[in-house]
Specification:
The complex is a heterodimer.
Chain A: H1 2-18, H2 23-42, H3 47-71, H4 80-98, H5 102-124, H6 130-148, H7 153-156, E1 162-163, H8 177-200, H9 203-213, H10 215-220, H11 225-251, E2 253-254, H12 261-274, H13 279-306, H14 317-329, H15 333-350
Antiparallel strand pairs in A: 1-2
Chain B: H1 2-11, E1 17-28, E2 31-42, E3 46-50, H2 57-64, E4 72-77, E5 80-81, H3 90-93, E6 95-97, H4 110-116, H5 126-130, H6 134-153, H7 169-182, E7 187-191, H8 199-216, E8 219-223, H9 227-233, E9 236-241, E10 244-249, H10 251-256, H11 258-265
Helix pairs in contact in B: 4-6, 4-7, 6-7
The chains are: A mainly alpha, B alpha/beta.
Chain lengths: 351, 269
């Protein structure tokens, strides 16, 4: 038990320092997408599958944003879907109503969400634990209603939502739109993960973790706790908002009902399932969010048809079972569970 | 060094004091935790703050690091009041501290804990660190070097990469001292450094406190219950009881003071 506690406590430090992005990862980041694109050209990977991959990466960025806030700084949020929505709408409005190019909308959406998060983070400084959870939850519940608000309809288009047109690949590149967007999303994600890793492996990251672990001691070390907490709220919202903007673009549509509070919960579940204070955990969490959303429903129906159960299964049954099983088997998330498994394997080989 | 300190201690309250505690009172609701406490901490001294449980020692400590604000009185550090400073500005002035129950950052390694101690003496912000600007490299190198120095001073080399959360309590207390020293404070506040230590560990601590004072050039103020440690390591002792100062002087003087004996042993009536 003492060992698991130590390893759990070790995850942030280990992931900050140990997650080495050497040349190998850089190479992987170039070779893997090229292979996929080649696969796409040869007809092995469909456009739909590129879209699925892009969505996984988008959710990974969103989960990473929540990880920075909750995993590394100890501030819980049940409302990150709100920042996701803010990013998506910023991008959609700029592209649809102001004809902004994609490359300009992404930084703008990020900036808008940073300030939204920072401003929300300021009053949130007074709240901790359950109270912060509740305040952020309220945000998640409110945002779809605000987007539907009658007097905002000229901008948000109300319940109708906004159609966003994907930009075609530039320079006449011989790629499909989905393939091109996959590359864009991947590049953005690589850059954002690089930024997160840099932040964590520095004075700033140590201060964030120090605040999480013992905020009073952190303040006596000279850390301006209020400043750090508000800024990291902004950064976290920036990540999730950027993910939202990318989602809006690759999905070609935004509407209030795409961003109901279930989305906030899905992001939180992704963060916890992947590994709450871990960068690789965010990637796994992103994949989990997309896969479960896509297949849990279908899988439940298939199973109930296959075994001809006498009772009707709820569509989200698989989701619940998977979640319970995962949390039981790997209480520190998939990354934590893998680390434990790996250590056991090594110990066994050592014997 | 020691002779010079003794001279300064003998000279009594002076402008040369690093810290002046002036008539400090703290009340929590109706309870008076500190009642007009005054004393000076001479530069370069090791001063012991003693008193029975609940006497107000930790309350006073918490005023020095601005966790509490006194209801009246003033605390001057190098002649300047610290009461107007925000809490996070205190270490930058040159005051470092440890906690009674070893308030480490459990998720960070020992080395990273010590690095956090450098926070006040470094300044890179979010953007510099996020984008790996050249300033980040220079500063990280400086912090790393300082952390290694402090690791060596407190004999923590073999623990440097271990997460702080799983360490035995006596090691945690040493990490705390290293973390506080990393910021190169002028005044080091030690809150019961001997609590939870065995005999040999207290002996080692005694030597460490002296060595730290001499080599790191800091003034030490310690709250302690361990009388033999206080009496052997301190140049000056201040005793408080029920929030009031009852004695001040050399260890020998304070030990003989009838009020101190009464506070610790009861009146025996």
């Amino acid at each position: 038990m003492a060992d698991t506690v130590a390893s759990r406590n070790g995850t942030p430090a280990a992931s900050a320092a140990g997650f080495v992005w050497g040349y190998r990862y850089g190479l992987l980041l170039v070779v893997l997408p090229l292979l996929l694109i080649a696969g796409g050209k040869a007809g092995f990977v469909s456009n739909f599958q590129f879209l699925q991959l892009s969505l996984m990466i988008v959710y990974a960025i969103a989960v990473l944003g929540l990880n920075l806030l909750t995993g590394f700084n100890g501030q819980i949020s049940l409302g990150h879907g709100a920042f996701f929505a803010a990013g998506a709408y910023t991008a959609a409005i700029l592209i649809d109503q102001h004809n902004w190019p994609l490359w300009a909308t992404l930084p703008m959406a990020a900036l808008v969400c940073f300030f939204a998060g920072y401003l929300f983070g300021l009053p949130a400084l007074r709240l901790e634990g359950h109270y912060l959870a509740l305040a952020t939850f309220a945000l998640a519940v409110a945002v779809p209603q605000i987007l539907k608000y009658r007097h905002l309809e000229p901008i948000t288009k109300g319940v109708m939502g906004i159609n966003v047109f994907k930009s075609d690949p530039p320079f006449g590149l011989p790629l499909s739109t989905d393939q091109w967007m996959f590359l864009v999303v991947l590049a953005v994600a690589a850059f954002m993960f690089w930024i997160a890793r840099n932040l964590l492996d520095s004075r700033t990251g140590r201060a964030l973790i120090a605040i999480r672990d013992h905020s009073m001691a952190a303040s006596t070390m000279g850390i301006n706790v209020a400043h750090y907490k508000a800024v990291v709220f902004g950064i976290s919202a920036l990540y999730t908002g950027l993910a939202g903007a990318l989602h809006g673009v690759i999905f070609e549509f935004v509407s209030p009902d795409s961003f109901r509070f279930e989305l906030s919960i899905a992001i939180l579940v992704g963060a916890v399932v992947g590994g709450i204070a871990s960068l690789p955990g965010a990637v796994i969490g992103g994949v989990f969010v997309q896969v479960i959303e896509k297949y849990a429903d279908a899988l439940t129906k298939q199973i109930s048809a296959a075994v001809q159960l006498p009772l009707e299964l709820d569509p989200w049954l698989i989701y619940g079972i998977v979640l319970i099983a995962l949390m039981y088997a790997m209480p520190t998330g998939i990354v934590g569970g893998m680390a434990v498994l790996w250590r056991r394997l090594k110990a066994m080989r050592g014997l | 060094m020691v002779a010079a300190v003794a001279e300064r201690v003998a000279a009594g309250p002076s402008a040369n004091a690093l810290l002046n505690v002036q008539n400090v009172s703290v009340r929590f609701g109706g309870i008076v935790a500190l009642n007009g406490v005054s004393f000076d901490v001479p530069r370069g001294a090791i001063l012991g703050l003693i008193g029975p449980n609940g006497a107000g020692k930790t309350t006073l400590f918490n005023c020095f690091s601005r966790l509490y604000i006194p209801n009246s009185g003033d605390i001057l550090f190098e002649g300047r009041s610290i009461l107007r400073e925000p809490r996070h500005a205190i270490p930058r002035l040159g005051i470092g501290r440890t906690f009674q129950n070893a308030a480490l950052f459990d998720g960070l390694s020992v080395r990273d804990n010590i690095k956090v101690g450098c926070h006040a003496s470094t300044g890179n912000g979010f953007l510099t660190n996020a984008l790996r600007l050249p300033a980040r490299h220079t500063e990280e190198e400086r912090i790393g070097k300082r952390a290694d120095e402090m690791t060596a001073v407190l004999d923590l080399g073999s623990y440097a990469q271990r997460p702080a959360g799983g360490l035995p309590f006596p090691i945690k207390k040493r990490v705390e001292i290293a973390r506080a020293l990393a910021g190169a404070p002028k005044l080091l506040l030690l809150d019961e450094p001997a609590a939870g230590l065995n005999h040999e560990e207290v002996d080692a601590l005694r030597a460490q406190i002296r060595r730290i004072r001499d080599a790191q050039n800091v003034t030490v103020l310690l709250v302690e219950h361990h009388m033999s440690l206080v009496m052997s390591v301190c140049d000056k002792v201040v005793a408080i009881d029920f929030g009031k100062k009852i004695a001040e002087g050399t260890p020998a003087e304070v030990q003989k003071n009838p009020d101190v004996i009464r506070a610790y042993l009861g009146t025996g009536a």
